[in-house]
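In response to a reviewer's request, we include the raw inputs and outputs for one of the modeled complexes. The four entities were modeled together in a single run.
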Amino acid sequence: MEITAPKKGTLKAIAAELGLSITTVSRALAGYSDVAEATKNRVRAAAAAADYVPNSAGKMLVTGRSGFVGFLLPVRETAILDPFLGEYITGLSAGLAEQGRDLFMTTVSSSQSEATVLKHIVDAGRADAMVLTRIAEEDERVDFLVKRGFPFVAHGRTLDHSDYSWIDTDGKQAFSDLFQWLYQELGHKKIGLLSITESMTFRRYREDGLIGAIKDCGDPDVTLTTRHVPRFDTASWGEAIRSMLESENRPSAIVALTDELALSVLEHAASLGVSVPESLTVIGYDNIPAAHYSNPGLTTFDQSIRSTAQQTAGLILDTLDTPDQIQQKLVSPIFIRRGSHGPAPKPVPNSLKTVSKTKG
Amino acid sequence: MEITAPKKGTLKAIAAELGLSITTVSRALAGYSDVAEATKNRVRAAAAAADYVPNSAGKMLVTGRSGFVGFLLPVRETAILDPFLGEYITGLSAGLAEQGRDLFMTTVSSSQSEATVLKHIVDAGRADAMVLTRIAEEDERVDFLVKRGFPFVAHGRTLDHSDYSWIDTDGKQAFSDLFQWLYQELGHKKIGLLSITESMTFRRYREDGLIGAIKDCGDPDVTLTTRHVPRFDTASWGEAIRSMLESENRPSAIVALTDELALSVLEHAASLGVSVPESLTVIGYDNIPAAHYSNPGLTTFDQSIRSTAQQTAGLILDTLDTPDQIQQKLVSPIFIRRGSHGPAPKPVPNSLKTVSKTKG
DNA sequence: CAGCCTTTCCAAAACGTTTCGGATGGACGA
DNA sequence: TCGTCCATCCGAAACGTTTTGGAAAGGCTG
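The model returned the following structure tokens for the whole complex.
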């Protein structure tokens, strides 16, 4: 027996075994150039043999970094975690893993506020950075982190989003393009918008995109009928949808803010005998899995969540490396044409179309 | 200016401010008896004023504990996180927060195996203990943690579950009691069992409970029809359910392994014109929120997930305090009577009933 | 008043890592 | 031969906490 063998699995143990100093072992593993190639190899071999994994506390103490990125799971009571989040988390986790970081998720229980949990994470140094999602037009979490100067990336943005890093899909452009397509290519003039009551920023951008495009086209015959429903209160959607479908001035195309809403429109249309796409066009947003299996398949926008999540991980890296440099990314969703769209049922007799391309 | 003011928000800073030693400040905050009450108060006040939060890395380094409890989120690709998990996580998180611990969740991306992620967490000391869920009859995660001697609590159990801590609901007893009630109180003799193909332990226990009770009752007229379907492949359920419902020897009571399955039975029964509960009794298990809103309301077992999750947090505490003492808890689910059950449609003319209590 | 016990406090070590500022030895140029 | 430079290595400090093993001071007992 030696005097005292150092505890297994530490730099000290490897150093003792190899007759080197702790410094050299540390630097060899970190790949510094001031340690001989031969030595590096010896060290690497010994480390591998000993199943060496650096103690995170030791590293954290000296670097001040935990290697964790924090995420607040928006699970409330019995609420379901939607497919969007599931995929996003998976992508984010994978992206961070590539950087050697871990994703640290927490829920907020009913007894705490989201702000309390956030404060705890920041104060206790549980995470080096945060990822925020489901951003509202005004968001106290964003305000808190900005004020504290704590690194974070928002997936989505607040109304005033100049002074922090975010990544978002360009819903405004998407809905603007969408209207132009509906109008010019398919001849729709009676547009229905099914939106949510909650004041989320993405709602505003999408609505603005649609409304702005309608204004810009300058056609006085174009009408817009809008209904707002509570986002997660599925039970209350029916009334709004039926009132749109049963109105004597029924829209020929209904644009829904999310796929969930669009699918609900599809269901009610079926039960009311309104055929899609012959007499009604329905467009969604998100491209959730169910959108693929509906009948007819839902025409919608794909946010490529996985890739967005990966990019978020990249932004986190940037934010940590260069904290004072903010990064903002707007990604364009991809339009997915499935079966829920078609030309407007009653083509206007002799209108003043600008360009009239017929889809091949 | 002082020589060098210690960094804000550390024990050293508070000690310097108060003219005390670091030791005393540390012990005062920890509530040791060898520091005067007056001093304790001074320290507490100063700590509060400075918004002092102990640096977790420092604490971790010396105690060897991270304060994290790990949890592997079973999110796979686009798979939805079910309501069960959402509630469980929330409860677990709340229970751990009371102990000053944090719940550290990770997903496993498609490129890694669950075992790899688990190994990483254990090796890197990311968590002090683990919570495992969705336990299979044989489970490599359980084996791994047992072999490594790493503290964990399983929610559910493997077939051989003698040497680790777990908490589970007593599905065997529940299904056994269920049959007795169906048979003795409601007069059902043609039982259908809709189960899953996956070899989960909870499946086996529930099946065993039902089958055992049927054997025990000794009535040769009792028949059991069983169908196994893939748990998450909802599309494939219909065939199995219809074959049961359309069989000329249709069961008068169908017992489903989960509420999802039971609700699907309800739907198919409705579309086939089989009235529930008049000509068919349907029983579920889990009491998911949707079970409350179905038509008729689903009679099922409630696992009181929230409370189970809280208890899991308690078990974690025990496991960390007394690592060599294993804890095993079997909790009884609560039977929830709603509208999907009724007496057997054709009462047997003149049978040999043992006890015949009629429900009031 | 001496000895002992209590109360209250503290110095120093330890945890495992990274990194700064050398130290050592040999090769090479002058 | 001496000085310079490079390649390679290492000692020691630092991060912030907990804990061990006292130490100092005062009160009490005899």
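As requested, we also summarize the result in words. The longest strand of chain A covers residues 190-196. Chain A touches chain B through 46 residues (CB under 8 Å).
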